[in-house]
Each structure stands twice: as C-alpha cells, then as structure tokens.
C-alpha cells in the first residue's frame, strides 16, 4: 500500500510539472529595452530632419533649438514611464495560474480517488476471495510453518482457517479467524466466516456467533452470508420477527426463482408460520411431531441417504435422563442452518442407528439433495424443543458428502 502511494505521488509530481512549468516559463518577456531603442532611433531621425530644415533656412535657430528640447523631454518622459511600470509590475497571471494548478491538481486527484476509487484495493483482504484450501496434514503443517515465520501474514491465516473448517476442525479454524479479524478488522466476510466456524464449534449461532454477525452487518449491511446466518440465529433464539427482517432483506439481492431464493423463501414461510403460532401460544406442529418416517418412505429415498450411529460420551451419561429427547438432524455445510432432515428419538434408545434422507425434509425446498455437503448433528434436548437451549448435549460429524454411510457421532459437548 505504501508503494502504491509513492507511485501515485511521483505521477502527480510529473503531472504538475508538465502543466505548471510551461505556464511559469510562458510569461511574456520584458520589451522595454527594445521600445527605448526604437524611441531613440525616432528621435535621431526627427533631429536629423530639423538639422536639414535649419540648413535649408526652413527653421530659425531659435525654433530648431526649441524643437530639439521638446523631443528630448518627450523621450525622457517615455523612458521614465517604462521604468516605473516595470518597477510596479504585479506577478504575471500565468505564474499565478501555475501556482494554483500546482496546489489544486494533487488535491483534486486525491479527493476524486478517495470518492470514486477503492482506497483498500491493495490491502491484503482484497486477495481473500482467492484463498486456497489445503486438505492434507502435510499441507497444513507447511502452512503452519510458514505462519510461524510471519504471524502477521493474512493470506496464510485465511488459508489455514478455511482449511481447518473444511476438515471439520472448527475450533482451530475459529482461532485463525480470530487472529485474522485483528489484522483486517473491516472485512465483513471474515467476521461472517468466523461466526460460522464458531457456530459449528458450539453447534449454535446463538451468543458469540451472533455478535460476530452483528459486527459483519455493521461493516456491510447487505452482506448476503451474514444476512442468511443472522436469520438462522434469530430462528434459533426464537426471534422469528428478526429472522423475517434479515431474510426479506436478503431476498432483495437474490435472483428470483434461483435455488438460494427458493430456500430463503421457504425459510421465510416457516418463520412467518412460527411467528403467527407463537403469538397464538402454540408451537409449530413441524417442531412438535418429528418422528421416524415409515419404512416405506425410507425405501423410496434416493442416493442422498446418510446413515450412521449416535452414541453418548461416557463423561456426559450422568447429565442425560432416559426420557430426554434426542434429535438427529442434517443441515447444510454452507447456507441456512435450518434442518434438511430430522429424526426424533429418546436417550433410552441410545446407541441409535440413524438414516437421514429427503423423505424426512421439513419442506420440499429444503432437502438434503439440494446441497453438496451436509453436517449431521445429534442433540439431547432437556426441553424437547428442536431449538438449541443451554444445557443441551451435542455432538457433530465432519462435513459429509451425500450418500455417506457408517457415520459415527459421539455426543460429547454441552451447549452453553
């Protein structure tokens, strides 16, 4: 960035010299000497004529002498006026113009650039869109070694953050995003991705992730991913009116009829339904009656089906009652965090063999087959509410491709 401003300053100096120097040098030259010489020559000619007239008897000696004195007096008067004018000359207008342009050109150029240009064009965050992802331990180790040599390198931090999240190491990814926002505090994308990684770590967007999303929207009120996740966070905490506001604003940016627009529109429909039902004092049937689908429906499901087993960690067994509700759900790795498929059991059924597919979707537009990768989340709810609550016990898978089988999820964390 410093080099950029140095180059700009050099170009401005050249431009100012190119314009102002010719004006400064272009002032009209002083012609008083040439004028005096011409007047002297005229005086000589007139005196020569008077001498000839005296010789030829056309002038008397008295008139001849009087005429010479008058010519000499007039010449002295003109020379004196020229010197006075020269002494009282004001600065030449061209020189004034040169000085004014030398001052105004840099000011105007910098002002226009700050108004119409992008002052952040050469800072590191402009390269973030191209941040790569490493999917092997050797690559991660190489990046960590590179970061150790230069801990302030934002590109390496971003690659590590994205790579850790891609590999399901959400806590590590969140730490790198935390370091990134300290280096580049005015990039909405970083705050949003940090919130997403932190939410995946704690299995909820409520709390600290929501604050990060709020900061992202302060920087860029129209940042699409921040709007989408903020709507989901509002749904999690039961603030359906806020979810509607976020998603309605997001819908204005999406292409009508596109897949993203369809998903957000379905989310809006659910939020409006839940808002209406909450005002009437009733829970949404979709959240009250989530049960395992019949075998016939499972058989009809396609290749998107993900299967596996859920177990409860030994350290948490004393915190769960047999009749506590167990939710097993799939949600998109990227995009709205609304469940794509959901299964309801009880703690006494553990370990639970689960199968999630499109037949278990809560809406036609929010199905597993609409996404490339999903995450399977298992949560024990004390309240029986599908919305996460403090004290719930959770476990989560790594990002999964559709059709993955034999997934093992251990419930090993508590929601705080």
From TrEMBL:
<dbReference type="GO" id="GO:0017004">
    <property type="term" value="P:cytochrome complex assembly"/>
</dbReference>
<feature type="transmembrane region" description="Helical">
    <location>
        <begin position="96"/>
        <end position="114"/>
    </location>
</feature>
<keyword id="KW-0677">Repeat</keyword>
<keyword id="KW-1133">Transmembrane helix</keyword>
<dbReference type="InterPro" id="IPR056412">
    <property type="entry name" value="Ig_CycH"/>
</dbReference>
<dbReference type="InterPro" id="IPR056413">
    <property type="entry name" value="TPR_CcmH_CycH"/>
</dbReference>
<keyword id="KW-0201">Cytochrome c-type biogenesis</keyword>
<dbReference type="InterPro" id="IPR051263">
    <property type="entry name" value="C-type_cytochrome_biogenesis"/>
</dbReference>
<protein>
    <recommendedName>
        <fullName>C-type cytochrome biogenesis protein CcmI</fullName>
    </recommendedName>
</protein>
<dbReference type="GO" id="GO:0005886">
    <property type="term" value="C:plasma membrane"/>
</dbReference>
<dbReference type="InterPro" id="IPR017560">
    <property type="entry name" value="Cyt_c_biogenesis_CcmI"/>
</dbReference>
<dbReference type="GO" id="GO:0030313">
    <property type="term" value="C:cell envelope"/>
</dbReference>
<keyword id="KW-0812">Transmembrane</keyword>
<feature type="transmembrane region" description="Helical">
    <location>
        <begin position="6"/>
        <end position="24"/>
    </location>
</feature>
<feature type="domain" description="Cytochrome c-type biogenesis protein H Ig-like">
    <location>
        <begin position="306"/>
        <end position="412"/>
    </location>
</feature>
<feature type="repeat" description="TPR">
    <location>
        <begin position="154"/>
        <end position="187"/>
    </location>
</feature>
<keyword id="KW-0802">TPR repeat</keyword>
<feature type="domain" description="Cytochrome c-type biogenesis protein H TPR">
    <location>
        <begin position="142"/>
        <end position="257"/>
    </location>
</feature>
<dbReference type="Pfam" id="PF23892">
    <property type="entry name" value="Ig_CycH"/>
</dbReference>
<dbReference type="InterPro" id="IPR011990">
    <property type="entry name" value="TPR-like_helical_dom_sf"/>
</dbReference>
<dbReference type="InterPro" id="IPR019734">
    <property type="entry name" value="TPR_rpt"/>
</dbReference>
<dbReference type="Pfam" id="PF23914">
    <property type="entry name" value="TPR_CcmH_CycH"/>
</dbReference>
<keyword id="KW-0472">Membrane</keyword>
């Amino acid at each position: 960035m410093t080099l950029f401003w140095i180059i700009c300053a050099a170009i401005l100096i050249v431009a100012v010299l190119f314009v102002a120097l010719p004006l400064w040098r272009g002032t009209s030259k002083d012609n008083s000497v040439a004028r005096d010489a011409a007047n002297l020559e005229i005086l000589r000619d007139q005196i020569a004529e008077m001498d000839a007239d005296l010789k030829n008897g056309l002038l008397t000696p008295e008139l001849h002498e009087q005429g010479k004195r008058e010519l000499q007096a007039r010449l002295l008067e003109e020379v004196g006026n020229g010197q006075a004018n020269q002494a009282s000359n004001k600065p030449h207008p061209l020189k004034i113009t040169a000085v004014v342009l030398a001052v105004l050109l840099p000011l105007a150029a910098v002002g226009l650039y700050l108004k119409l240009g992008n002052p952040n064009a050469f800072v590191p965050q402009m390269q973030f869109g191209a941040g790569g992802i490493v999917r092997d331990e050797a690559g991660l180790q190489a990046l960590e070694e590179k970061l150790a040599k230069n801990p302030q390198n934002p590109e390496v931090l971003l690659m590590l953050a994205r790579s850790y999240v891609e590999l399901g190491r959400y806590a590590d990814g969140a730490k790198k995003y935390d370091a990134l926002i300290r280096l580049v505090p005015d990039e909405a994308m970083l705050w949003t991705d940090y919130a997403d990684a932190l939410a995946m770590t704690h299995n909820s967007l409520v709390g600290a992730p929501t604050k990060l999303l709020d900061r992202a929207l302060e920087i860029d009120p129209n940042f699409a991913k921040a709007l989408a996740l903020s709507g989901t966070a509002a749904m999690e905490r039961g603030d359906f009116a806020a979810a509607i506001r976020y998603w309605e604003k997001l819908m204005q940016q999406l292409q009508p009829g596109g897949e993203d627009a369809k998903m957000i529109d379905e989310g809006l429909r659910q939020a409006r339904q839940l808002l209406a039902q909450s005002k009437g004092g009733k829970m949404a049937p979709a959240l009250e009656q989530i049960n395992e689908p019949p075998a016939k429906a499972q058989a009809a499901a396609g290749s998107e089906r993900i299967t596996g087993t859920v177990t409860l960690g030994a350290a948490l067994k004393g915190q769960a009652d047999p009749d506590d509700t167990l939710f097993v759900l799939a949600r998109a790795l990227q995009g709205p965090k609304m469940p794509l498929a959901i299964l309801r059991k009880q703690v006494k059924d553990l370990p639970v063999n689960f199968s999630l597919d499109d037949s278990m979707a809560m809406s036609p537009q929010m199905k597993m087959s609409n996404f490339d990768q999903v995450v399977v989340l298992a949560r024990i709810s004390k309240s029986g509410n599908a919305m996460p609550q403090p004290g719930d016990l959770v476990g989560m898978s790594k990002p999964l491709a559709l059709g993955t089988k034999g997934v093992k999820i251990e419930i090993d964390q508590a929601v705080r």
